[in-house]
Structure formats: C-alpha cells, structure tokens
Amino acid sequence: KFNLVTCLMSLHHLDYNTIIDEIHRAMVMNGILIIREHDIKYSKLNIYLDVLHGFWMSVLQSLDFSNFKAYYHSADYWKKLIESKGFKQIYFNKKTNTGEKYHAAFIKIP
User: Fold this and answer.
1) Around Cβ 6, how many Cβ atoms within 10 Å?
2) Can you tell me the distance from the alpha carbon of 104 to that of 28, in angstroms, rounded to the nearest whole number?
3) For the chain, first and last CA: distance in Å?
4) Whether the Cβ atoms of residue 39 and residue 102 lie closer than 8 Å to each other
C-alpha cells in the first residue's frame, strides 16, 4: 500500500473514475493524494487545450490523434469527484492557481 500518490496533469487523459477508485484501494488510510489538473471554468478553454496538446504530440513525434482523449473539468468538479471516492481535500490555494491549473492535496478517509 502507498502513503503518497501523485497525479500531475494526467487524470484528464484517463478513465479517471476507475483510476481514482484504484488509487483509493492501493493507499493506506490517511495516505495523501496530490493532483495537478486543468481548471476549466470556460468551455472555450477546451479548444485551446486541445490545440496545446496537439503541439505537444507533434513535438513528441506522435501525430496520430485518432486515440487522443481529454476530459477537462473545473476545480470544483475534481474536488467533488475525488471527495465522493473516499478522500477529503486538505489543501488548495487559489492564490497559486496560475495558468488555470488546479493544485490540491487530499487525504484518504475511512
């Protein structure tokens, strides 16, 4: 079992419901989950992020976009989802939320 798990700019590309359940299963009680995700407050930001991801994929020589998936959400959505899976948010500082990112820490609760 793990005391600490980090998910940095990755959950939006995965089946995050399943991943968060698996993280919860694999963590010790009172273990810490740290996440960094996009904080989407405006739907137009989705287009910008898709273009930005396209540039990254081009740099990495992966021009096949046929399997590209991204599920962008707001900080409130991520918080509610993760807390519904058996975690409690213990850190979030809006003052450091630059670039529409969501930085937060959660603790696994009984």
Assistant:
1) 11
2) 19
3) 15
4) yes
Q: In 45-80, which positions are buried (b, 16+ CB within 10 angstroms) versus exposed (e)?
A: eeeeeeeeeeeeeeeeeeeeeeeeeeebbbbeebbe
Report the alpha-carbon distance of residue 40 to residue 100 in Å, rounded: 7
Q: How far apart are CA 89 and CA 49, in angstroms?
A: 26
* 14 backbone dihedrals φ, ψ, rounded to 5°: -120, 175
Q: What is the pLDDT at residue 19?
A: 96
Q: Tell me the two tokens of residue 66.
A: 């046929």
Rg of the chain over Cα atoms, rounded to whole angstroms, equals: 15
Give the pLDDT of residue 97.
57
Compute the Cα dihedral for 9, 36, 86, 70 and give only its sign: negative
Tens-place pLDDT, residues 52-77: 777 777 777 666 666 777 888 888 99
